[in-house]
Amino acid sequence: MKCKLSVIAALSAVLALSACGGSSGDDAGSKTPVSSPAALTKTDTTVGTGAEAVSGSCAAVDYTLWLYNSASANFKGTQVETGTVTFAIGAGRVIAGFDQGVTGMKVAGKRTVLIPSSLGYGVAGQYPVPPNSGLVFELSLKEIKNLSAALCK
Prior knowledge:
Elements lengths: L1 H17 L22 E6 L11 E11 L7 E13 L7 H7 L7 E6 L19 E11 L8
Antiparallel strand pairs: 1-4, 2-3, 2-5, 4-5
């Protein structure tokens, strides 16, 4: 009798747990669709007239970031953040897609960059960007500074 009760209790526990969905909780509750462009694309909306952003230069960039959404006409899903960043191009201080997206811009230029997950936050993601998410950046190159990478902040 004790054996039957143990088996019944164990079976009840297994059934109760399986009814909960069995998800790991990583992204199961998220309502954000995850999609990614096949390749990095850069589209200039305004071609600047100032200095060009090249590897080794110190760039000051205003940006707005959205999650990539293939179902949206402009691929802009949820807006994630907006701000200004100053960084040394090619020094690995920003995600690879952002670095590549800024390269070739000229001061006063504006550009839209679609970044695949592999050049963004990848399989790990980084809050609030879910794993495997593509990104859309609107960039505005404000300034190129003549500083070494160590001084570029």
